[in-house]
Amino acid sequence: MHRLALWLVALAVALLPVGAVAQGAVADPALRAKADALVAILDGRGAYDTYFAASFREKVPKAQFSVIAEKLKTTLGAPQKIESLTATSAWSADLVVGYARGTASVRLVIDPAAPHAATGLLITGTGARDDTLAKVEAEFRALPGASGFGLYALGSGRPEPILEYRADVAAPLGSAFKLWVLAELARQVASREQHWEDVVKVGAPSLPSGVLQTWPAGSPVTVQTLATMMISISDNTATDTLLTTLGRAKVDAMAETAGGSVPVMTTREMFVFKGEPALTKAWAAGSVDERRALLVDNAVKISTAKLDPTVFAGKPVAIDSVEWFSSPAAMAVVMNALRGADATTRAVLAVNAGVDPAVAKRFGYVGFKGGGEPGVIALNYLVQAKDGRWYAATGNWHRADDGVNEVRFAGLMGRALALLAAR
pLDDT of 266-323, one tens digit each? Predict the structure, then answer.
């Protein structure tokens, strides 16, 4: 529900923008030296406080960076060397960092002024050496907890499986349920019940991710703006406003047709029900009709409750009940439906590719929506190969006893996409 943290949206760590690529750029010697020194930093041996500028350290404290670096080492082994450096300016470069079992794609920016501290670092993707779909499947099977994924060729009929693992098992989705909302919006636009330029007022604020929760109450926005924020930055307030505008019954019908769970909660409802044990218990024990009644009976409480931002501060919370559920195979059906929607729908889905740019460049189109919270991650891609063929890649991982390694999982999905691009 939150934005999958800084390192999940694009598959890793974040900070300042790299900027445009200068054709034929030549790296300053200081940039090459800084790149070489990054190996020790990623291995936990370097001097973090002197390597990074204060502006970076304020955004990404050492403890947070260390967690990300350890996730990379868990996935790829120890970092060993810089395998390649492609300058994008004298002071910025795209790097490939060699690890024992794979590579990480990294964008690095340094201060032109001595001592040339690093002001920007973005880990955009990971890859395994000599990769195969069989290796990807084996790593999915090895994930602790429960996971599932599917790769599908898309055409005029139902998605055709290329590779599946527990693809028919429903699992928690987190914010990936917003694909149902987008699919229903696309249907209503096609039937002229809604128009992309229609203006509505922003509804009750939810918790982040997103920005609309900070806007003045009732701010006017277009339906297309709501959809774009919902998909590209997983804006929860935009989602709730759009879901209410479309009508819960119609979103429920879309979700049910797509093989998803109903009733489809708003994000605000989810936060309230996860934050109050009595409601959590009632929801878990309730039938579909009883859950619908709970939402109606508690409507006033839901609309006026002060939301608790610490709901997800610890272990996974009610991920087996107060959630949205679907299987990888069912999510592939949703992605295929979105493929057949209008150009605006596909453009909204493509604002955030959600994968290593080096992988994204191998496709003609990449659409994406993920979701997650402690103990849950789900990633869903709609891609078109350069030869025109369409594919869906959908996957999930959850565990009730602990968090999941988002970098590891996103790396697996990125590898699956890279292998699809090579078909």
Answer: 999 999 999 999 999 999 999 999 999 999 999 999 999 999 888 877 789 999 999 9
What is the rounded end-to-end Cα distance, in angstroms, of the chain? 33
- Residue range of the domain that includes 312: 133-421
Number of domains comprising the chain:
2
Confirm whether 179 is domain-assigned: yes
328, 395 Cβ separation under 8 angstroms: yes
Asked, for residue 169, whether it belongs to a domain, the answer is: yes
Cβ atoms 405, 5 nearer than 8 A: no
pLDDT of 1 over the 70 cut: no
Q: At residue 344, does pLDDT exceed 80?
A: yes
23-34 confidence digits (pLDDT tens): 568 999 999 999
Q: For residue 159, give every residue at least 6 positions away whose Cβ sits within 8 Å of its Cβ, in sequence order, or none.
A: 150, 152, 153, 329, 332, 333, 335, 336, 392
- Alpha carbons 282 and 82: distance in angstroms, whole number: 54
Contact 364, 386 (CB under 8 A): yes
Specify if 1 maps to a domain: no
Burial of 120 (0-12, 13-18, 19+ CB in 10 A): buried
Cβ atoms of 65 and 43 within 8 Å: the answer is no
d(CA 393, CA 133): 12
Strands (E), 114-231: 118-128, 146-154, 160-165, 171-172, 199-201, 220-222
Q: Which residues pair with 46 in a beta bridge?
A: none
Nearest CA to 416 among 393, 382, 385, 383? 393
pLDDT in tens, 213-236: 999 999 999 999 999 999 999 999
**Identity of the amino acid at 32:** R
**Mean pLDDT, to the nearest integer, of 156-183?**
97
Length of the chain: 423
The answer on 330 and 246 residing in a single domain is: yes
Q: State CA 382 to chain mean position distance.
A: 13
What's the maximum distance between 2 C-alpha atoms anywhere in the chain? 67
Q: Which residue in this structure is represented by tokens 């968090």?
A: 403
CA-based nearest residue to 24, from 89, 83, 85, 84: 89
Per-residue confidence (pLDDT) for residue 24, from 0 to 100: 65
DSSP notation for 283-317: HHH--HHHHHHHHHHTHHHHHH----TTTTSSS--
User: 327 CB contacts (<8 Å, ≥6 apart)?
Assistant: 148, 167, 168, 169, 170, 171, 259
